[in-house]
């Protein structure tokens, strides 16, 4: 996440005719290195504006706490105070504690300390390069989420270890926004946080939200119908560079230090928790199809759509009936994974 760069456009839209659940109001926010679009349907006068303003403030506050480049953020402070305890505020502590649990549950497929490797490949600045083997091996020695020491609200990192919560921050932010909207009395809302979609309730007309799934080659591959859920996709096509005919993607296998190559083009998670969805979309992408299916069978609590590089779609059984292929992918078979 870059230094705080914050542009907010409040777009007040006219009420849609025929919708029973109030009028939509939207805000576009540029934060956490991505474009965020928030839409709430308010029941009462002024409810939408108030909820959106609080949501924008919340995103701003979270970015200020979690940015790896903003010198006043808690993560920056921890990354630059090796061996010393840094106090964390409640949201950072809650996010880090859940993220570390997810790193452990995924056996390190998600690892919040992989940042030095991501930086070495140039994905943090856009100046992409292929690091030499010795560089990767020496940086890998510092990558280990289990060395992150969180004691109550005190965070201590060993020398050389750096934290980046980028793989889970947007999911967490989405969860906070949903909680905030509920508190404000909003019953229906949808937010897009750069690829992550969080839906509160159903559409104002009572039907499920429809979320399009991107096709790796461009356009759309599928459509998901959801109520009160987050849909999060990690895809190799989202950020990558090419050199000598080979493609290097921004999702790193923390065991090897190289971009994850498991035959998946994307991993999409549908879950009640955005944090879980965000962390698992990255982790399942790193795991590849077989390990991802095994993880789902053992842990549950979410559903998935995997698109493979050979053009296959694989879904977990809970999505049967609320997922269909679309466009170029429409006539391809969907494999359903059962427990
Ligand atoms: P994005 O945030 O780009 O939508 P992800 O949620 O999949 O996509 O997170 C990928 C980002 O997280 C990468 O850009 C990188 O900074 C970091 N990252 C890459 N691989 C891992 C990993 N295995 N575990 C944790 N973070 C990772
Ligand atoms: Mg993620």
Q: Would you mind describing this structure in some detail?
A:
The chain is an alpha+beta fold and 339 residues long. It contains eight helices and 20 strands. The chain has helices at residues 47-66, 74-79, 90-105, 115-120, 133-140, 166-183, 274-287, 289-299, and strands spanning 7-11, 23-31, 34-42, 86-87, 149-151, 154-156, 188-193, 196-200, 209-214, 220-226, 230-235, 240-243, 246-249, 252-253, 258-259, 264-271, 303-308, 313-316, 323-325, 334-337. A hairpin with a 5-residue loop joins β9 and β10 (220-226). α6 packs antiparallel against α7 and α7 (274-287) packs antiparallel against α8 (289-299). Mean pLDDT is 93; it is low at 1-20. Bound molecules: adenosine-5'-diphosphate and magnesium ion. Adenosine-5'-diphosphate (ADP) binds next to α6 and α7. Magnesium ion is lined by residues 167, 234, 278-279, 281-282.
Features:
three-stranded antiparallel beta sheet, binds magnesium ion, 339 residues, ten-stranded mixed beta sheet, alpha+beta, single chain, binds adenosine-5'-diphosphate
Q: How are the elements arranged and paired?
A:
Elements: E1 7-11, E2 23-31, E3 34-42, H1 47-66, H2 74-79, E4 86-87, H3 90-105, H4 115-120, H5 133-140, E5 149-151, E6 154-156, H6 166-183, E7 188-193, E8 196-200, E9 209-214, E10 220-226, E11 230-235, E12 240-243, E13 246-249, E14 252-253, E15 258-259, E16 264-271, H7 274-287, H8 289-299, E17 303-308, E18 313-316, E19 323-325, E20 334-337
Parallel strand pairs: 18-20
Antiparallel strand pairs: 1-2, 2-3, 3-7, 4-6, 5-6, 7-8, 8-11, 9-10, 10-19, 11-16, 12-13, 14-15, 16-17, 17-18
The structure holds adenosine-5'-diphosphate and magnesium ion.
């Amino acid at each position: 996440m870059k230094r705080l760069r914050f542009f907010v456009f409040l777009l007040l839209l006219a009420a849609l005719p025929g919708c029973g659940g109030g009028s939509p109001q939207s805000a576009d926010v540029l934060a956490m290195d991505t474009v965020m679009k928030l839409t709430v349907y308010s029941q009462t006068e002024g409810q939408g504006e108030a909820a959106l303003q609080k949501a924008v403030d919340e995103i701003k506050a979270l970015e200020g706490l979690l940015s790896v480049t903003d010198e006043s953020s808690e993560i920056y402070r921890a990354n630059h105070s090796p061996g010393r305890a840094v106090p964390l505020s409640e949201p950072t502590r809650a996010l880090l504690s859940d993220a570390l649990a997810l790193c452990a549950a995924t056996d390190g497929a998600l690892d919040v300390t992989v940042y030095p490797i991501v930086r070495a490949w140039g994905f943090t600045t856009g100046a992409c390069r292929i690091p030499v083997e010795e560089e990767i091996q020496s940086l890998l020695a510092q990558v280990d989420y289990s060395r992150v020491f969180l004691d109550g609200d005190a965070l201590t990192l060993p020398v050389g270890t750096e934290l980046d919560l980028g793989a889970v921050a947007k999911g967490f932010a989405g969860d906070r926004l949903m909680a905030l909207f509920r508190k404000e009395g909003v019953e229906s809302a949808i937010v897009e946080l750069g690829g992550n979609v969080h839906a509160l309730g159903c559409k104002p007309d009572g039907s499920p939200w429809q979320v399009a799934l991107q096709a790796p080659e461009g356009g759309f591959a599928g459509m998901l119908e959801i109520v009160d859920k987050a849909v999060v996709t990690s895809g190799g096509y989202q950020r990558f560079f090419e050199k000598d005919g080979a493609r290097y993607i921004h999702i790193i296998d923390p065991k090897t230090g190289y971009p994850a190559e498991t035959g998946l083009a994307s991993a999409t998670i549908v879950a009640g928790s955005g944090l879980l969805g965000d962390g698992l979309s990255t982790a399942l992408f790193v795991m590849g199809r077989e390990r991802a299916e095994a993880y789902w069978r053992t842990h549950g609590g979410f559903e998935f759509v995997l698109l493979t590089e050979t053009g296959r779609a694989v879904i977990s059984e809970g999505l049967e009936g609320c997922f269909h292929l679309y466009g170029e992918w429409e006539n391809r078979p969907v494999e359903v994974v059962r427990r």
